[in-house]
Amino acid sequence: MLQLCSAADKSWLWDLLDLAPTPAHATLLSEAQVQRVLKVHRIRRVKANEVLAVLQAPALPVAPGTAEATQAHCSFLLPCLRVLADQLQTCSQQVSALLRKLAEAPSEGEAPSNVAIVLSLPGVGRKITAWLFAEAAQPLAERDYQVLRTHGGVAPVTKQSGKRRVVVMRRWCNPRLRHALYHMARVAMQRDAHFSHVYATLRAKGQRHGQAYAILPIDCCVS
User: Fold this and answer.
1) Contact 20/55 with Cβ under 8 angstroms?
2) pLDDT tens digits, 99-129
3) Model pTM?
4) Nearest to residue 5, comparing CAs of 49, 40, 39, 55?
5) How far apart are CA 22 and CA 70, in angstroms?
6) What is the distance, to the nearest Å, from the Cα of residue 30 to the centroid of all Cα atoms in its chain?
7) HSE of 87, CA atoms in CB hemisphere, 13 A
8) Residue 56: phi, psi to the nearest 5?
9) Environment class of residue 222 by beta-carbon count within 10 Å: exposed (0-12), middle (13-18) or buried (19+)?
C-alpha cells in the first residue's frame, strides 16, 4: 500500500485499509469497491484497476500471525488518525479565517495591513504567514531587517582575530522561523520568475544552495 501513498497519511488509503487490512482480504476486493473509494475522495491520479493490481500483488512472506497482529494494530491506529486529521483541518480553517480577518483589518493611514503585505509575497501562503507572525510579529511590524535576519538564522556569524577571519552559518536562532524562511524561499524560487533569476545568478557566482536561499525572500518582508 505504501506504493500508493508513501507517507500513509491520506484518508483514502485509510479507507482502503478498512476494506483490505490483510493480503487475504485484498484478494476478495472488486474493482467497483475500489472505484467507490476513489470517487468519494476525488482521486484521479490513479485508476481503480491500478490500485487493485497493487493491492493484489504477491505479499511478502511473514511468520504466522503477523498479518493478523498488524490488522489489530491498524484497527487501533486508524480511528486516532482520523480524529487527528479532522482536528488539523479544523485548525487550518481557523488559521485561514484569522488571517483573512487580520488582512482586512485597517492599518495606519491607507497602507494595507502587515498580514496582507506578507500574504501578497511570492512563496507565502497560509502556513508560512502563520509561522512568520507567530515567531516574528514585532520585527515584521517594525520592518527590522537585522533582527529578522538574526532570529531567522539568515545573518552569518563572522569570527575575526588579528590574523584570521571566518564567516560561518548562524546556529543559534529560532528554528521555526528559519524553517518558515527556507520554505518561503523555496516556493518563491519555483513560482516567481524574478526570484528564480536571482537564485540562478547567485549560484552562477559560486554561492552554495543555502547561501542563495538565505538572500531570496527576506528583503521583501521588510521592504
Assistant:
1) yes
2) 999 888 766 666 788 888 888 888 788 999 9
3) 0.71
4) 55
5) 8
6) 35
7) 6
8) -100, 10
9) middle
State which H helix or E strand residue 199 sits in: helix 193-204
53 C-beta neighbours (distance < 10 Å), count: 10
d(CA 216, CA 182): 9
On the question of pLDDT at 95 being above 90, the answer is yes
Say how far apart CA 83 and CA 89 lie, in whole Å: 10
Q: H/E element holding 178?
A: helix 175-191
Q: d(Cα 56, Cα 134) in Å, to the nearest integer? A: 47
End-to-end CA distance of the chain: 48
Q: Which three cell numbers stand for residue 217?
A: 525572500
Distance (Å, whole) CA 16 – CA 20: 6
- The rounded Cα 199 to chain-centroid distance in angstroms is 21
Cα 109 from Cα 125, distance rounded (Å): 25
160: enclosing H helix or E strand? strand 157-160
> Crossing angle for the helix pair 175-191 and 126-142, nearest 10 degrees?
110
69 membership: H or E segment, kind and range: helix 66-104
Distance CA 50, CA 4 (A): 9
Ramachandran category for residue 153: left, alpha or beta (phi over 0 → left; psi -120 to 50 → alpha): left
- The DSSP call for residue 223 is -
